């Protein structure tokens, strides 16, 4: 199977996830600024989750550009990733509606952790199919950001019960780490195309 159907399906699912998330934003009951300010936790959790979904979409897009053939293992690994990402609207809403209470904030981190692990599994499935000398293997190298992110999530989950703002700050740090465009795959693809 070619990668086009996988890309189209994944893009569609991510678009639906973002749509569900924005539909969960409720319009304030009043017309004054105070009514709007009461929604800041919901809006803040939405912005953070939107950034995370954008990061996943961007990196997923780049990663799929490195493959030519899709295996069954890649399909299932991709579905596994999409499953965890599909829970983002639920945990986003729960965390925002409860003003970053410890339980919802910890569950938010757990979903982020599972999505990070699912992304790693997908990456490994692609590497197994493409080989150790593939474009993706060359591009990710030691993958510092990919290794440190789950560690930060794992630390943030129990910290949510100590101080949910520290946990939230750790989620923001990981997002900022990935928000800086990762040019590794683009650079390797460009170099590969130049050499052909």
Please provide a written account of the structure.
It is built from ten helices and no strands. By secondary structure, it is mostly helical. It has one domain. The two termini are 24 Å apart. 29% of the residues are buried. The model has no long low-confidence stretch (mean pLDDT 89).
Largest sheet: number of strands, sense, barrel closure: none
| Oligomeric composition of the shown chains | single chain
The poorly predicted ranges are: none
Query: How many domains in all?
Result: 1
Tell me the number of helical segments per DSSP (H or I, 4 or more residues long).
Answer: 10
| Average pLDDT number | 89
**What would the principal axes of the Cα set say about the shape?**
elongated
Radius of gyration: 18 Å
What percentage of the residues does DSSP assign to strands (E)? under 5%
Structural class: mainly alpha
The termini sit apart by 24 Å
Helix proportion of residues, in percent?
over 70%
Order of helices and strands: HHHHHHHHHH
Please report the total strand number as a whole number. 0
